[in-house]
């Protein structure tokens, strides 16, 4: 039951008991019932309306009901019902106005006992004051508990919305991760396969079948690696790379050299262990850079540098002597570069490209490590 409904029931109960106190004043029964009916009608029907129409109406409500309650108390001969109606007024004041105002009303109500003898008035006044203060405190506690439940329900709803958003974001991030991994891994292997097949076709034309067969075997190995890469990416169960980063990058340069672009490899500083996600990002950066060297640069040579010279940073450079880029390099051309930037940005690193038309290109990736 809501607070308003409970107070409405209390108002009806108080009204029914009004004649009990005024029965000994037969001539006052009818005025008591009429005044009580007006008071009860305002309390039951008028209070919900006042709640919706601001503080000015709330003040007017209290100013009307307080003297009307005093009148009822006098007409009813201090009937219990009249006291209960004043209790309802105190509760309504707590719901409408700040708590200090409600306590002020609670302190005013015992003044109805002033016409009594001093000791009787003091005794009755203190009792009434205790009842009114108790009613105000209980109502305030009920209001706070109701607000706390509403706040909790609202927070729960917000939490559900945030959980749904987090789940959606996690799905998007996982989709992007899979897309990057498939592009970086599968794209690299397929590029090597393509170049091996092209080289094998060229060698077959010269009659050197043994050399062509070796190239086809390497292409087959690369296709097998590509298939394994796809399976690991799609299942999202790839284990951290077990071999050192320098060895993995060196293997990439050897693949590029075997595909027809002589590629050197250099380690600056002392190689050190870094987090798995850092090593994975640097490996993918080298993979993407060398794939672009083979596919687009038309380079005759390339170099990969893994630099550990700075204690808290690791730098990877992929340089080639190919065609380079005309003008400023587009920052997001191709999914590979977009994925690389996203991957590195997630680690707090940076990706830069330096190029001059006809003088090659340098891809630099720097990450904390």
Structure commentary:
The protein is built from ten helices and five strands; from the N terminus they run ααααααααβαββαββ. The chain has a five-stranded mixed beta sheet. Among the domains are: 3-115; 243-369, Histidine kinase-like ATPase, C-terminal domain (Heat Shock Protein 90, 2-Layer Sandwich), CATH 3.30.565.10. The longest helix has 87 residues, at 118-204. It has helices at 3-22, 29-51, 54-75, 80-96, 99-108, 118-204, 209-235, 245-258, 276-297, 335-345, and strands at residues 263-268, 302-307, 313-320, 350-355, 361-368. The protein has 369 residues and is an alpha+beta fold.
Which features does this protein show?
9% strand; rod-shaped; Heat Shock Protein 90; 369 residues; 10 helices; five-stranded mixed sheet; 5 strands; alpha+beta
Task: Give a quick precis of the structure.
This protein has 369 residues and is of the alpha+beta class. Helices cover 69% and strands 9% of the residues.
Say which CATH homologous superfamily of one domain is assigned: Histidine kinase-like ATPase, C-terminal domain
What does the average pLDDT come to? 81
Shape annotation? rod-shaped
Q: State the end-to-end CA separation.
A: 62 Å
Total helical elements: 10
CATH class division of one domain: Alpha Beta
The strand line-up of the biggest sheet is 1-2-3-5-4
| Extended strand count | 5
The helical percent reads 55-70%
The arrangement of helices and strands along the chain is HHHHHHHHEHEEHEE
Roughly how many Å is the radius of gyration? Answer: 43 Å
List segments where confidence is low: pLDDT < 50 over at least 5 consecutive residues.
Answer: none
**Level-2 CATH architecture of one domain:** 2-Layer Sandwich
The major β-sheet equals: 5 strands, mixed
Structural class: alpha+beta
And the CATH topology of one domain?
Answer: Heat Shock Protein 90
Strand content: 5-15%
